[in-house]
Amino acid sequence: MRIGTKLTFLFLLLAVFSLSLVCGLFHLSAKSLFEDQVLRTLRAMALIHEGRISASIKQNSERLSLVSSRTQLRLSLASYVEGGDIEEGARMNRILEDARRSLESFESISVLTTAGVIVASTEKVQIGEKREESEALARALEGPVLYDLFLSPAGGLRNRLRGSLRQAGAGRVLGTIEIVARPDSLLEVLMDRT
Fold first, then answer.
1. Mean of the pLDDT values across residues 180-193?
2. pLDDT digit string (tens) for 92-138?
3. Helices and strands (H and E) in the chain: how many
4. Radius of gyration in angstroms for the set of CA atoms belonging to the chain, rounded to a whole number
5. Are residues 71 and 168 in contact, defined by beta-carbon separation less than 8 angstroms?
6. CA distances for 64 relative to 14, 41, 84, angstroms
7. CA triple 187-190-194, angle to 5 deg
8. pLDDT tens, 23-73?
9. Which of 84, 108, 159, 174 is the most exposed place for a label (fewest CB within 10 A)?
10. The model scores a pTM over 0.70
11. How remote is the C-alpha of 57 from its chain's centroid?
């Protein structure tokens, strides 16, 4: 083999090695930049979705507070707890039905005593049932809380909100209010891929 051929072969070998090294470094750099960009985009989307989920939960808590702040509902519950007046139970049912009609996403609203017995509800078949959810009751006494996501018998996703009903002025806890709602705004966030 002549020296010119050897030099050409050596030069080509060196060029291919250098080119491979440059391509490898370029690939690693591009991959790193791409991963960083994807992570930044995902973090931004997560922050946006987190804000939307928080806003949805806050909106439902405010709606729960609006229902539980109805003075006549609390007065009727106080009368019912003190004397067991059936007419007060019927009055609470009318108030709950009116509240449910005004808020589309609410499927049912129930009033429970501190013992967990449902004394009024938009779902009449539930009246008299006892709920054994002491943890949910304790959390509801602290303030409005979204405490359960579940599937309805028809297979739709539902959430359960609970808050306390306190006697006006004295602040004595009379019971809790429980709302079963369709989490439409929450589902929009979860289904949104943008």
1. 71
2. 888 888 888 887 778 888 888 877 888 888 888 888 888 776 666 66
3. 5, 5
4. 31
5. yes
6. 74, 35, 25
7. 125
8. 999 999 999 999 999 999 989 888 888 888 788 778 877 887 777 777 777
9. 84
10. no
11. 5
Any idea what the Cα angle at residue 68 is, between residues 67 and 72, rounded to 5°? 90
Could you list the beta-strand ranges (E) of 30-181.
106-113, 118-121, 145-151, 157-166, 173-181
The confidence score (pLDDT) of residue 153 equals 79
CA–CA gap between residue 3 and residue 16 (Å, rounded): 20
For 42, the token pair is: 């995902």
Query: Is pLDDT larger for residue 193 or for residue 27?
Result: 27
First-to-last alpha carbon distance for the chain, in angstroms, is: 64
* DSSP state string for 124-150: GGGTT-B---HHHHHHHHHS-EEEEEE
**For residue 160, is it left (φ>0), alpha (ψ between -120 and 50) or beta?**
beta
Q: Tell me the C-alpha distance between 4 and 158, whole Å.
A: 81
